[in-house]
Amino acid sequence: MNKDDLKKLTGIYLILDRKLAKEKSYIEIIDSVSKSGVKIVQLREKNISTREYLEIAFKVKEACEKNGIIFIVNDRVDIAYASNADGVHLGQDDLPPKYAREILGKNKIIGMSAGNKKELEYALNQDIDYISPGPVFSTSTKPDAGNAVGIDFVNYVLSNTEKPVIPIGGINSDNVKYLSNIGINKVAVISAILSSEDLQKATEKLFLALCKKNWA
Ligand code: TZP
Ligand code: MG
Q1: Domains identified in the chain, total number
Q2: Ligand 1 centroid vs 100 CA: distance in angstroms?
Q3: How far apart, in whole angstroms, are the C-alpha atoms of residue 100 and residue 116?
Q4: Is the pLDDT reported for residue 43 higher than 70?
């Protein structure tokens, strides 16, 4: 996919998190969600060695490629580069996007989180390809994520940029309508899918709710 098409893409951005994936293999997870609306997968490993991270990245990249899914690495520009990922997601404390761009090149996707107006302003002044406001709703998946920013902040982001906006944090099949109603076509989730017994069903349900417009 050309990264310029990212804005038009409708779908789920699934973040792979070992804690919530429990014993399930990432490859099985990707295989079971890829036909149900997951269009982007992010690998988000914590507390493992660089070599281990890279080994996992190679495998996840292969599974994503096979399933036509965009593959993003969280935080680590070195791992994104070495695994030839489609891009990297950076937090406000990670390597500044300008260095990530120098390393990865102009064709790779660089995404950035923003949890308030100041972070948004910083992000929008960088050479990035999408922005993730959040946490939109409260979430226990990332205890240090800060206070929920709410739909109003997502609306504020939408009115301040033409870049793709991919909200994150506490999003599920019940509340996603508040986002699709304001024009959001992509959402990033962890628990809404990974905490379910049936990953495929949970993905379908979320995707359907995301695609459904103009809810009452
Ligand atoms: N960044 C902001 S909130 C969050 C991250 C990684 C966690 C999202 O997980 P969930 O389970 O979809 O709320
Ligand atoms: Mg980060």
Answers
A1: 1
A2: 23
A3: 22
A4: yes
